[in-house]
C-alpha cells in the first residue's frame, strides 16, 4: 500500500509484518511540460538530477550523484543519469538504491535532492514525483508528488534518517535554486 506523502510528513520504514527494511530505492520521474509555439505544442528537454547526500552529525560525509555513482562505502548507488526524463509511463527516470544494512553506523541521515542541471524551472516540468520502494519486493511504500511547478530549479525532496533501531523517511518538498547538489547545501542544512 502506497502512502501519498505531503510536505513534512514522516513515515516509519517498517515492513507490514513488523520487520525492518533492508534495501530501498528512491525513484525520481518527470516529463517536460508541453509549451505552445508557433507550430503547436512542443516540449523542451529538461535534465533533472537526483542526488543523495550522506550526513554524520549534520556534516556531509559523502554524496551520490551522476558523477559519483556509488558512495565510498558502497551502501548507496545511483543507477545513472537520465538527460531528458520520461515519456509519461510512470517509471523511474533516475533511481538511487540504498542498502540500509550497509550504511555505516556514523551516517545518520541521507538527504535526497533533485535539481535542474540545465537550469529550467519546475514550471517547465510535469508529472514529477519522488517515491520510496522496498527494493526486496518492489512494493512502493511512499510517493511524494512535485506539484505546482514554480520558478525554482531544485527541491530538497526527502530524507531517510535513523530513528531508534530503524529508519524513517520524511518528505521535505522544500523548493530551492541551484544546478547541482553543491548549490543546494545551504538549503539542505535547515532540514537536518
Automatic annotation (TrEMBL):
Transmembrane segments: none
Gene3D superfamilies with a match to the protein in the record: sav2460 like domains
InterPro entries for the chain: Stress/Tellurium_Resist, TerD
Pfam family, one: TerD
Top-level taxon of origin: Bacteria
Protein name in UniProt: Tellurium resistance protein TerZ
Species name: Streptomyces zagrosensis
Residue stretches making up the TerD domain: 1-179
Amino acid at each position: 500500500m502506497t502512502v501519498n506523502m505531503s510536505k513534512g510528513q514522516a513515515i516509519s520504514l517498517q515492513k507490514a509484518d513488523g520487520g525492518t527494511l533492508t534495501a530501498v530505492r528512491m525513484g525520481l520521474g518527470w516529463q517536460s511540460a508541453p509549451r505552445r509555439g508557433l507550430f503547436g505544442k512542443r516540449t523542451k528537454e529538461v535534465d533533472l538530477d537526483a542526488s543523495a547526500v550522506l550526513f554524520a552529525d549534520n556534516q556531509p560525509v559523502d554524496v551520490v550523484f551522476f558523477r559519483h555513482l556509488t558512495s565510498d562505502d558502497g551502501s548507496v548507488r545511483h543507477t545513472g543519469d537520465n538527460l531528458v526524463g520520461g515519456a509519461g509511463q510512470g517509471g523511474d527516470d533516475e533511481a538511487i538504491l540504498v542498502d540500509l544494512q550497509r550504511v555505516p553506523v556514523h551516517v545518520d541521515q541521507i538527504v535526497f535532492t533533485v535539481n535542474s542541471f540545465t537550469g529550467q524551472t519546475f514550471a517547465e516540468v510535469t508529472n514529477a514525483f519522488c517515491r520510496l520502494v522496498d527494493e526486496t519486493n518492489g512494493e512502493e511504500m511512499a510517493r511524494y508528488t512535485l506539484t505546482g511547478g514554480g520558478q525554482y530549479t531544485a527541491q530538497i525532496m526527502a530524507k531517510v534518517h535513523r530513528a531508534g533501531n530503524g529508519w524513517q523517511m520524511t518528505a521535505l518538498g522544500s523548493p530551492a535554486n541551484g544546478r547541482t547538489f553543491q548549490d543546494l547545501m545551504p538549503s539542505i542544512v535547515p532540514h537536518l
